[in-house]
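Entry 14. Ran structure prediction on the chain below.
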Amino acid sequence: MQRAWTFLCILFLAVWMAPIHAQEPESPGSEEEPDYEEEIPIESDWGGYTPPSLYSRGDQVVILSVGVTIPTVFTGNSGELLFSGVGQITVGGTGSISYNYFLTPGLFVGGEIQGMFSGTIGKHMLYIIPITARVGYQFVIKRFEFPIALGLGLAPQMLLDKNIVSFFLKPSASAYFRFNPDWSFGLNTTWWWIPQIPNDRTKTVYGNFFEASLSARYHF
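Output, structure tokens:
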């Protein structure tokens, strides 16, 4: 009987100790390596939030715009109204290319060349090619950008056989959505003040046009 109990005790101990011996101790260098191939999500500035200031000194923007010009009021030397609306000049088309250089996160300087055409009451075509230097400031709210600018320059005007070069003033306000770090898209609204000054100054006409255009901006 004693031998039987001894055999059972040895068998019990062998069964109980087997799982313990089956677990080999891990060496310090045998820990499972992390799976570096697994994609780690990276938070992006364009994932629904944009830092308050996207710009710094030296940032540059090229703008391409296309739109329409609407004649408004035309006055003489003494400020009297000569004519208004589209009775004398029709709604025209316009296109431009502009360049901005940022001096600070908000302040920029640049230039623009633009072309405009419009019909007249006599079924002729009026062409104006403004060339301006400009300065402006841009406000940024997340991914929305609101530049305002003032352009000053010269505007060659061509109608039939008459060619005149006159002063040109163009204040503007725009709104853009920053689609990605390279591109933004938006709407421009501008006012043209452009005098037509012939040799006979008594016949000077100060023209005013409203421009609405769509723009694409490339940032670099």
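Residues 18-24, 36-44 have pLDDT under 50 and may be disordered. Will compare against last week's run tomorrow.
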